[in-house]
């Protein structure tokens, strides 16, 4: 067998060493010997056999020593070491392939002129340094440079946009220094100034912003994915926020029901231009009935309340209310409100009974007596604040997963539906999830977001980071101010407040008068959203049923349809004898009520153990 292989001498020595190892009850050299006799390639030197299974550097060196001794005994010349062989097919065909197909000469790649993205960290730094005197080569320290660049950048130069990361807009300085656009001088206080190439980039940026003709730039020969977000200049008046949520977590397709909403109801603010904002406002303005179409009397027929109060346009101011628990981190609680103030929005901070952000109309003091006379929350906080038709729930991906796991997600949606507010927006921020958690809850996240859009009709806005969310909130506040401050608001009194009555009445009059803006005072909204005051016996019964493991919302609703109260449910068990009749009470009546998943007898027995 050793004589038939391509390297009989090496195989012979390996067999001798294998036999010696067998005498010592060892299996050494067996794998190397089998690989050698099976190899069809002839080796010039033993070191080339390292590609075989079982032959390492030490064994090949031992074979080389054995071969040298053999050559010395027989007066032969020791072969020289060649280059290491790769795969067998590559070793056989490499030389012929190189001769037949010589590699063509590569053309030098044309470099593209670097231009930072609009309002990025690199953009702000270059623009700030371009305000200095070029002839005197003026330079400024870091603190002064940040003060000049911060108004020109959307991100912060001092605080990271994500609490889990450590990168700020100042990290763009490394990119600019590596491209030799910014130079430094001075020690120990380092100062920064633009190089000649940096001044050229600054001139190109000014020309692009002023709409001047730019010199032609060389085209790329190959489109490669750009990782640095500052490599392109976006000079649109309102650059859209990029969607960076994982495709496996966030469904990219908008639900048809959400898309079919009226333009006056849902406006994706940061992905629309100013012209689209104006068209949306025009549509809303045209959809408002004229005064001749709206009932002039302050008492609207068919309602149990009297003396509806109308706040004319111009007698109130629209403001944003931010929940005091919405913070960046526990040690940086004022980051969101501080960034909003930089964008021209001063939020009102307080504890909200529902949602994370909502918008109110603060009435003028001249209407205070009129509101108190109608018994609208006299002496309570927010008695001059009218809650408008928009509310927002902000969720990070990890928080959304946690709320789905512990049931808060469904409870929040239930309370939002009963709040009486017309437009609900879910603001979902991207957050890095582990691969295991993403695989485990990816489908649940997709289902939850699709359910919000299709089933509940909520608008879902996805952002890449907290700074993008803050920018969206600021733009949404400015848009709502321009929409609602031109309209009259009809305020609902609260003389006989019942949450179900108010929500039903709001739905009825919104259908009768689509252009009418109805609102409620902040205390009325708080009472409607109170977890204890607005909870009915049916809600409590459903929650009691769902505490049993395996009882979903659908099964609890079907049980409640048959037995409307907990007392009726317990009496149904008391009328049956112990045994299968009692254990199978629910499964016998609900066996086919839920088509997707039947109520098993084991679950029915578990319910009977709790309620029977």
From TrEMBL:
It is an enzyme of class 3 (hydrolase). Residues 319-432 form the ERCC4 domain. One of its GO terms (cellular component) is nucleus. Gene3D superfamilies: 3.40.50.10130, Crossover junction endonuclease EME1, DNA-binding domain, DNA polymerase beta, N-terminal domain-like, Winged helix-like DNA-binding domain superfamily/Winged helix DNA-binding domain. Residues 209-243 are annotated as: Disordered. Its main location: nucleus. It is found in: Nucleus. Its EC number is 3.1.22.-. It comes from the Eukaryota. Keywords: DNA damage, DNA recombination, DNA repair, Endonuclease, Hydrolase, Magnesium, Meiosis, Metal-binding, Nuclease, Nucleus. GO terms for biological process: DNA catabolic process; double-strand break repair via break-induced replication; mitotic intra-S DNA damage checkpoint signaling; replication fork processing; resolution of meiotic recombination intermediates. GO terms for molecular function: 3'-flap endonuclease activity; crossover junction DNA endonuclease activity; DNA binding; metal ion binding. It holds the Pfam family WHD_MUS81. Its cofactor is Mg(2+). Belongs to the XPF family. Interacts with EME1 to form a DNA structure-specific endonuclease with substrate preference for branched DNA structures with a 5'-end at the branch nick. Typical substrates include 3'-flap structures, D-loops, replication forks and nicked Holliday junctions. May be required in mitosis for the processing of stalled or collapsed replication fork intermediates. May be required in meiosis for the repair of meiosis-specific double strand breaks subsequent to single-end invasion (SEI). Interacts with EME1. This is Crossover junction endonuclease MUS81. It comes from Exophiala bonariae.
């Amino acid at each position: 067998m050793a004589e038939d292989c391509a390297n009989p001498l090496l195989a012979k020595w390996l067999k001798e060493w294998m036999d010696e190892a067998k005498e010592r009850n060892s299996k050494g050299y067996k794998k190397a010997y089998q690989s050698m006799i099976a190899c069809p390639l002839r080796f010039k030197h033993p070191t080339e056999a390292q590609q075989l299974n079982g032959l390492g550097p030490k064994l090949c060196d031992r074979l080389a020593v054995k071969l040298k001794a053999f050559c010395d005994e027989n007066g032969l010349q020791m072969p020289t070491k060649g280059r290491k062989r790769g795969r067998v097919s590559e070793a056989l065909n490499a030389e012929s392939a190189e001769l037949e197909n010589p590699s063509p000469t590569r053309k030098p790649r044309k470099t593209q002129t670097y231009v930072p993205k609009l309002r990025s960290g690199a953009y702000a730094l270059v623009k700030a340094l371009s305000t200095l005197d070029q002839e005197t080569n003026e330079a400024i320290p870091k603190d002064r440079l940040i003060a000049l660049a911060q108004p020109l950048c959307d991100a912060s130069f001092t605080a990271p946009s994500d609490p889990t990361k450590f990168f700020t807009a100042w990290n763009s300085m490394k990119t600019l220094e590596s491209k030799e656009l910014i130079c430094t001088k001075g020690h120990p206080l380092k100062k920064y100034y633009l190089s000649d190439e940096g001044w050229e980039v600054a001139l190109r940026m000014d020309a692009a912003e002023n709409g001047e003709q730019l010199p032609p730039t060389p085209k790329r020969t190959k489109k490669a994915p750009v990782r640095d977000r500052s490599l392109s200049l976006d000079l649109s008046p309102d650059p859209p926020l990029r969607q960076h949520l994982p495709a496996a977590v966030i469904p990219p397709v908008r639900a048809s029901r959400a898309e079919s909403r009226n333009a006056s109801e849902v406006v994706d603010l940061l992905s629309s231009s100013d012209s689209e904002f104006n068209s949306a406002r025009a549509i809303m303005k045209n959809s408002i009935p004229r005064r001749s179409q709206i009932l002039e009397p302050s008492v609207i027929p068919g309602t149990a309340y009297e003396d509806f109060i109308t706040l004319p346009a111009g007698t109130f101011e629209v403001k944003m209310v931010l929940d005091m628990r919405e913070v960046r981190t526990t040690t940086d609680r004022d980051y969101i409100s501080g960034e909003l103030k930089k964008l021209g929005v001063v939020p009102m901070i307080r504890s909200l009974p529902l949602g994370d952000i909502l918008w109110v109309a603060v009435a003028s003091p001249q209407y205070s007596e009129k509101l108190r006379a109608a018994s609208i929350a006299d002496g309570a906080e927010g008695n001059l604040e009218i809650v408008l038709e928009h509310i927002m729930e902000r969720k990070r991906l990890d928080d959304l997963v946690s709320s789905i796991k512990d049931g808060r997600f469904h409870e929040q949606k239930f309370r939002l539906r009963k709040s009486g507010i017309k437009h609900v927006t879910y603001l979902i921020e991207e957050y890095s999830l582990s691969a295991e958690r993403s695989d485990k809850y990816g489908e649940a996240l997709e289902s939850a977001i699709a359910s919000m859009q299709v089933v509940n009709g909520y608008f879902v806005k996805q952002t890449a980071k907290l700074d993008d969310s803050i920018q969206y909130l600021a733009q949404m506040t400015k848009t709502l101010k321009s929409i609602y401050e031109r309209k009259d608001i009809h305020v609902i009194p609260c003389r006989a407040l019942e949450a179900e009555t108010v929500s039903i009445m709001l739905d009825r009059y919104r259908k009768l008068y689509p252009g009418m803006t109805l609102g409620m005072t902040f205390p009325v909204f708080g009472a409607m959203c109170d977890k204890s005051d607005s909870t009915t016996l049916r809600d409590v019964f459903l929650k009691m049923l769902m505490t049993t493991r395996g009882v979903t919302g659908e099964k609890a609703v079907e049980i409640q349809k048959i037995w409307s109260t907990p007392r009726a449910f317990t009496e149904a068990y008391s009328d049956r004898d112990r045994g299968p009749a009692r254990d199978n009470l629910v499964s016998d009546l609900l066996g086919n009520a839920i088509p997707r998943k039947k109520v098993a007898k084991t679950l029915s027995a578990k319910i009977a153990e709790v309620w029977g």
